[in-house]
Amino acid sequence: MSEESTLFILYGSATGNAEHIAKDLAARPNTYFDKVLCFELDQFKRKCQPTWEKETTTKHAVLIVTSTTGNGDAPENASRFVRYIKRSQTVDEKPFRHVAYAVLGLGDTNYDQFCQCAKVIDKKLLELGGTRIRPLTCADEATGLEEAVEPWTERILDEIAAACRGSNCSTEEVKEESKEAIQEKEVDQTLTVENGARELKFSDGVATVRALIGLENRSQPIWIPDTKYLPSLTASRSCELLVPRKESTDFSCSDSLTTTSSGLHYTMKHPFESTPLKARYLTNTSTKAAEEATGLLEFTEEAEMFSDESLLKASKVFESHFSLSPEDDSCTREQRDRNGKRVIELSLALPDDYTLEYAPGDSLGLLVENTPETVLFVIDMLQKNHGIHSNQQVSIDEGRAVTVEEVARSHFDLCSPVKSKRILFGLSQFATNDEERVALQFLSSKTTEGDRIFKSFVDEQRLNVVDLLREFPSTQGISMQGLFGMLPALPPRYYSVCSSPLKNSTSVTIAFSVVDYITPSLKIYGRERGLRRIGGVATRFLETVCSPLLCSSGKFTSNEIFLKIFPKPTAEFRMPKALSTPLILIGPGTGIAPFMGFLAHRRALTQLSEDHATPAAQTVVEGMWRGGYDVREKDLSIHSTHDLLESIPGENRVGSVDLFFGCRHADHDWLYRKEMEYLLDEKILSALHTAFSRDRPNKVYVQDKFFEGETSERLLSLITEQNASIYVCGDGNAMARDVKDAIVKLLSQKMGVEDASNYLEAMKKQNRFVLDIWS
Question: Which N-terminal stretch is annotated as signal sequence (predicted)?
């Protein structure tokens, strides 16, 4: 190109997936652009616009990768950009009239607002004068992001270059250059056999791949796919050791900031260090494991946390107490079912200065660390093979200096099951054993057999990158940059808030299921390689560190432990402002969590009429209460406590609340049973419908309760005559679709099926049908 050209790759990311894809794309070799800049969408005005000429005959190249959070919300680092492109003034300016763009959206079809943020950006950029070079591409996490992401990333550089500069550089030229940049080694397809084929020994990973392919003859090599079926390999992140200097280099990244443009005091980048206050099992779960684990925990003052060794020992206690293995004859199938279903309620301290605000319907973000086992493995591996010590400092993406241990512990995701075949291909480049390199390339190939073996061995067995390093030990010589450069960032975990700031302004409460399960059986040459026990990185950690609280032990005080948290507000999952609006709440399992916050909040608001002098009443009237909830003087048109009380004159003006809750067993995982029954007695709940799926031969789910007795008539009246709002929360594994289908079926009793579907769609647009679904 005759003049310097720049490709701008912008991302909006909540968990790190979009950021990883964007940075991976930015790192790919290309013959089109002299410079590639990659940054958050919210940095657009500062980094893009100043470099663009007012008038130009060429197009600026912009690629956008974004996820969607909540119920169609933009990620935190893209919200300012979305607000900017929505303004009417921005439309008049047409700031994208010299821009060629393409948008890749990441989403999950289990959510109602699939890829909504990407859809908004794609549409608005066109309205703002942009040239869309290809239709919006949406990747679905429910079926696998790679199915849409990889074809998009493979072609998009060609397409954006042609649109901007009319480059003559062909796809073949780029592929050739990319291949040279990777410096891919030729793979020796001849397997060495010493003393006869029977003496040939393979690593566990190689043996498993060979068995799944069906290679009984040990001298028969694994087939190597053509290179066109192998992934591309680029480092999406940089992680460089820093050379010690007499004068320290300033790598500060505005760490002193405590507020953001959104007005939040605490964010993912600047979390609040909270202490656990209370914890209890909501399921009928024995606390004996917690008692034993508490005795093993050892506190370290330096880390302000329990030692890694004691955490490992304590976590094993839960595995021994709660057997899940079908091979354990001492444990019945029903008991294993109950052992694997443990739900914990956890209360966390909030800042004394009321700077962490939340409202019912919001989520709480938790920054987690990789498990001690994986961290210790990686640190030992780097020290053994490269002499890199845990306290040496590194720079990530030219950011601030951190130690190698910090990087392994909290920056890159070592524990999540591997979903990207690029990671296997990346490991293959460092394998010093031919058989292991061949097996890894076979697993990473986009072939029918490669996909099948990947699914049964890597995906279904939930192997993470450390598991792969163990399965294929000759890859353990991988460089630090090679390992961390291909891994995604460690994402935060989000949990629905189940408390009200009106009830308790000093703490926030969440509820979560402890992720704990067994992988499918996988027998290789008569040896069991499956039935791996997998625990949730965050939830198993929380269960372990909260052991003293779960068993009411006085061994440790809560202020000795710190958990990094931040609020994740929602724009959609909010109670109606008018208390007179009837509510229909549908929350199976831990989907009940936000509704307990709704009910606590609703009860607190109705109690305002009983006590004119409560601090809650005064703070609500003054608009000073911690929640940030839309109950403000200007919203309610009130000017005093008396006005507020007049706006809630009594029970007649408070809408009904029908709650639908489902779980497996009434005597085990009926969460908040006592609280529900109390709220029913107090008339906060108008009706309570429960479904227990495993207490009878025929399974019953929450949507089945819509059609029992007089319930269907009541629901029809609430929805079509009283303008009730419906809220659905829970695991998106078919539940959300089943509930929606049941509501359409219910409405069709009063109108045709097509009219019922249209009616439900209209309710969505009016925010009368709102979902908070996860997968």
Answer: none
**Shared-domain flag, residues 596 and 721:** yes
HEC string of 410-478 equals HHECCCCCCCCHHHHHHHHCCCCCHHHHHHHHHHHCCCHHHHHHHHHHHHCCCCCHHHHHHHCHHHHHC
Question: Which amino acid type is present at position 441?
Answer: Q
Q: Closest Cα partner for 512 from 492, 547, 540, 531?
A: 540
Q: Which residues pair with 564 in a beta bridge?
A: 273, 367
- 165 and 197 part of one domain: no
Say which CATH number the domain at 525 has. Answer: 2.40.30.10
Residue closest to 428 by CA, chosen among 206, 191, 175, 192: 206
Read off the tokens for 87.
């303004």
User: What does 252-276 look like in DSSP terms, one character per residue?
Assistant: --STT----TTS-S--SSS-EEE-E
127-175 pLDDT, tens digit each: 998 999 999 999 988 777 888 888 898 889 989 988 886 544 333 443 3
Cα dihedral sign, 160-164-170-175: negative
User: Alpha-carbon distance 231 to 428, whole Å?
Assistant: 11
- Asked whether residue 602 falls in the same domain as residue 744, the answer is yes
Token couple for 28? 């790919």
> Quick check: is 149 in a domain?
yes
List, in sequence order, every residue forming a beta bridge with 728; answer none if it has no partner.
586, 771
AA letter at 28:
R
- The rounded distance, in Å, linking the Cα atoms of 62 and 50 is 15
In a domain, residue 60? The reply is yes
Question: Is residue 320 one of the residues assigned to a domain?
Answer: yes
The last residue of a domain, from among 568, 595, 623: 568
Distance of CA 391 to the CA centre of its chain: 30
Alpha-carbon separation of residue 116 from 70, 635, 674 (angstroms): 10, 28, 38
Residue length of the chain: 775
Q: How many domains does the chain have?
A: 4
Q: 400 or 372, which is more confident?
A: 372
Question: Which residues pair with residue 566 across a beta bridge?
Answer: 365
CA angle 564, 75, 257 (to 5 degrees): 50
Could you report the per-residue pLDDT of 468-492, keeping only the tens digit for each?
A: 999 999 999 999 999 998 898 899 9
Q: What are phi and psi of 583, to 5 degrees?
A: -120, 140
The C-alpha atoms of residue 39 and residue 35 are separated, in whole angstroms, by 13
Distance from C-alpha of 558 to C-alpha of 551, rounded to nearest angstrom: 13
Handedness of CA 318, 320, 326, 331 (dihedral sign): negative
pLDDT digits (tens, 9 = 90+) for 556-595: 554 568 999 999 988 889 999 888 999 999 999 999 999 9
- Section 585-612 average pLDDT: 87
Half-sphere exposure of 372 (CA within 13 A, CB side): 16
- The pTM score is 0.81
Query: Cα separation of 322 and 284, whole Å?
Result: 13
Is 102 strand, coil or helix?
strand
Alpha helices in 532-592 (DSSP H): 537-545, 547-550
Cα 626 from Cα 438, distance rounded (Å): 58
Domain membership flag for residue 392: yes
Q: Which of 435, 463, 485 is the last residue of a domain?
A: 485
